[in-house]
User: What shape does this take?
Amino acid sequence: MTEDIAVLGDYELDLEKAVEAILRARAGKILVQLPEGLKRYYPVVSNYIRDRTSLDLEVYLDASPAYGSCLIDPELVRGYDLVLHIGHDPYPLTPRPSSNVVFLDLEYVGTDLRAILEKLEMLLRDVGAVSIAIATTNQHKKLSKRIRDELTSAGFSVVAGPAVALGCYIPLDLRVIADAVVVVAGGLFHAISLGMTARSSVIIRVDPYTRDVSNVSRDIYRFLSKRLKKMSEALEARSWGVLIGTASQYRPQVVDRFVKLLSERGLTYYLYVAPVLTVEVLRNLDSPNVGAYVVTSCPRVAVDDLYDFEKPVLTPPEAVRVLMRGDVSEYPDSFL
Ligand code: SF4
Assistant: This one.
């Protein structure tokens, strides 16, 4: 550990910012929220903070899921002087939860920038890309800035980004016309989300974890074809389950829209409230009375976690298209 950077496995975290915020707020009781996969580092964070502030500080460590800042519970936050939410940017689709929530970036440092750049430059030249937009996630902000600087030095024109994209939200800055969008993120989810909304046909995913750099435009196309298949299966459903989230994943207008749509079409529906939705939760709820589901909370659940569920589990735009148009020849242009 350096003077002010905590090392949590392959991630760096500037905890001095947390210490400053605690001292400034004269906080006596704080809550720390680490994302999934890093919760085992709670003792490291707690020890650091207590060493730098006072032993009287009460440090609570949140064991509930923190898949995104969308899950920050305003009621819970009110019970603490300060909440340190680590690893996500503020959720852009609802107002900031409260002034006592401090957002701290995590930076993944386990990758090999040189190896990534070599492959990336080669691929960009192969596809003839000159203008480039860069999207990323909270954990790769510094890496993405270095990629931008290196690409600029190599003669590419970075016309947008790096900007943080969420599966459910693509900032307007990234919706520019560029020859290619470079998505610096693990997995395919963010690349797919960009592929649906960005006005560029070439999507290159840089995965800092596996160091894979590839043109995923075809994977996105295949993914969308499979989603269309699920939408066409859902056309047969006479009864639907509407899965409803909590905190900022509770979207009452979306739920109301489905209640109205399903009623107008004379379809049966059931409203399920699920603060955390996993395949186990859905399996436990599933009934022969329900033919298809729509997830109104997090679109990632429908497209990633419940992808292989035996009944169609759709995102809101997919379900709207099925219910309103009965036409599944085209895929909607967003997940939310
Ligand atoms: S994709 Fe899901 S987990 Fe991520 S910010 Fe959006 S609602 Fe939250």
Q: What stands out?
A: DSSP finds eleven helices and 16 strands in the chain. The CA atoms of residues 34 and 86 lie 5 Å apart. Residues 67-68, 70, 166-168, 249, 298-300 surround iron/sulfur cluster (CB under 6 Å). Residues 226-325 form a domain with the Rossmann fold fold (CATH 3.40.50.11860).
